[in-house]
Amino acid sequence: MSKLYVKGWTVLPRRSARVRHKPSLAIALVDPKPLTRRSIAEMLTKALPEAVTVAASTCEELIEIEKRPIASPDLVIVHIRGAAVTDACVQNALELVRLRLPEARVVVLSDRDDVQNVNEALTCGVWGYIPTSVEAEVAFAALRLISAGGTYLPAQERRSLSAKPDNGAECERRGRSDGLDLTPRELSVLDLLREGKPNKLIAKGLNMEESTVKVHVRNILKKLRAANRTQAASVANRLLGEPPPATIQLLRPASGGGMNSKSRHAEPVGG
User: Fold this and answer.
1) What 3-state class would DSSP assign to 127?
2) How far apart (Å, rounded) are the C-alpha atoms in residues 102 and 53?
3) Biggest CA pair distance of the chain
4) What CA–CA distances, in Å, run from 264 to 1, 98, 171, 213, 239?
């Protein structure tokens, strides 16, 4: 099987692909460890011969490298290994993919199979959560299901999630998100925006890049049909029926893992 290595990428073409047309399935694998990245990519290529698979070490690499072999992947598999979904590096990686590749269906591949981690992944909008403890055939079947528009969770986690009620804070948070049509991360940005904080302090408080905050603020202004940050805060206060938050819950500091991106500079939106 032929392989092509380009600027840290591992490009694994379809085994029998001779015609040059868009593949029926384009998969991007993000794994910080070279050995497992290559092994998983080769397994995907053998199990899904109709697909073209591209592997990268980080989500930033997946997004930023020019002349990507796959312009817009159908599936993005993010191997978070043993990290919690709530870890800042994982949150930033998932958010980057969601913002820059909005059409892609994100799948979390994890060494953990606890219900809490699965539940956190669902709140991030992933299409599937595949523990590395499942059989390979199950994982491949899950990817086919997700590529066809379905959602995959392990059977044990599905039963646990359906039986476990949400706590009050979680229900309230989801209700706020539904009412404002904002994602959980956008709600976190909005909470700080309502306090009057600039993008730089919002980025520091939520442990994300200023450029990502800038995108969130633009989305918030658009969704709330606000002309500026002050108007957005006013609209949010009116819709939520509550005063601006006095405190926030900060994300855990990034541990310097492979998926943590470098700091960039961006101008604030609306001052």
Assistant:
1) coil
2) 19
3) 62
4) 39, 18, 34, 11, 33
Q: Domain 4-162: give its CATH superfamily.
A: Response regulator (3.40.50.2300)
pTM above threshold 0.85: no
CATH of domain 168-240: 1.10.10.10
Residue 241 CB partners (closer than 8 Å, separation 6+): none
Cα separations in angstroms, 202 against 18, 82, 88, 219, 255: 49, 28, 14, 15, 19
Rounded Cα distance between 65 and 41, Å, is: 19
Quickly tell me which residue has 């694994």 as its tokens. 12
pLDDT tens for each residue of 153-197: 876 665 555 555 444 444 444 444 444 567 778 888 888 888 888
Contact present, 147 and 167 (Cβ < 8 Å) = no
